[in-house]
């Protein structure tokens, strides 16, 4: 039974995103009592919705401190995968079984674009476009402001250096990408085409408008492939898997999982459906898997950001120190568990379903793939190359809420950077290319000389968080205070409709 009458990938009958998330966390605590002995998941329903943010932080702290970190991630990934169903032609079937059945290969349409292959690294930021070697300057600036981790800075430097070796521009001719959510605001699709890659466009949006817009200054290069009868991720996962398999006949494919749509549990259903499609493919057809993780997750705070947070709290100006004493800006941004610190960065307003998509279908899945591979049934580990980096908070259409708009205006007063979409898209694409091309990247399948728990930690260490994880105050409290500052600057937001 599906949760609603519409066709497509669904959660189990009568199960909301919140209840689904609660169930997976509870099942995990029960399955690993030694790991989660001191963790209590709030009761289902209203108690969970009200307190899931802090409970999840403590759950994650116990998980990352355990030598079974990657095993727990694999368990959560399987629990998520096994519960998905699809309503198709009036019948409801487990998604796993649906994807395992044969489907005729959808028609692929190939179009060679007329431009010359070559992606010059470029990052627009604060009114200036940094190009080529200049990208190092903006990376240094963001690192100085504690807006990205050392790992992210090193990865971006590698990509800029690779472009220099290649004559100033990255040439991805011969590289093949299947991008699910190719038309998403943050997807790297256009950058890949400009670099000369062959790209399978999977999206409900038609690519022609995006290609025409991107070609206004210079024609795009590369080869664009579409599957007209395999575009809807929720309704056509089997057709999309068949299209990717056909596309991979000419060589292994880099999978990009970037589709997103808010509301009605779509965040979780889309993310989990993309994961299921990836798992259904033959391992030899998949060169890598890439995705972006929101900074509003219970991420592990890197040592440099822990140090920055403590320093910023000690050296904060009088006005924020006063707010801290009044508890308007409580100074507890991280939950420390042994040697690990977890960011209290979850935003309850985004809802448990949104967080389930980020935590189960992205963080846990990325770790599971990087350490064990796509096999969830206990086979021998076959690690995959995974790119799963934190991408900064950006002014996307999904954040068109009056509270967020007000907080965005006030955020710079608290040292938090809200990025324009082109900035995040550029930084994230360059960082992803490092992960896919550098055989020593943290999530590379070839970097396996460490224990699974350490490999999992490394895979999620590259974070362009915009100051969220180096913040000296509790993030949710900072959002509220920043919103007050923003409303003072733009009172009209008080009357804005969502």
**Overall mean pLDDT score?**
93
Sheet-strand content, in percent, reads 5-15%
Radius of gyration: 22 Å
CATH structural class of the domain at 109-301 and 342-495: Alpha Beta
Globally, the shape reads globular
Distance between the termini: 33 Å
The CATH topology of the domain at 109-301 and 342-495 turns out to be: Rossmann fold
- In spatial order, strands of the major sheet run 4-9-8-7-10-11-14
Sheet with most strands:
7 strands, mixed
Low-confidence stretches: none
CATH architecture descriptor of the domain at 109-301 and 342-495: 3-Layer(aba) Sandwich
What is the number of strand segments? Answer: 14
Task: Offer a few descriptive terms.
3-stranded antiparallel sheet, 17 helices, 14 strands, Rossmann fold, 498 residues, 7-stranded mixed sheet, alpha/beta
Structure description:
This protein has 498 residues and is of the alpha/beta class. The protein has a domain at 109-301 and 342-495: Rossmann fold, CATH 3.40.50.720. The protein has 17 helices and 14 strands. It has helices at 17-31, 46-64, 69-83, 95-100, 135-144, 150-165, 189-194, 207-214, 237-247, 266-280, 303-314, 318-325, 352-371, 402-410, 421-437, 452-459, 475-489; strands spanning 8-10, 85-88, 91-94, 109-112, 122-125, 128-131, 176-180, 198-202, 223-226, 253-257, 286-293, 334-337, 340-343, 386-390. It has a 7-stranded mixed sheet with strand order 4-9-8-7-10-11-14, sandwiched between helices. It is globular. The model has no long low-confidence stretch (mean pLDDT 93).
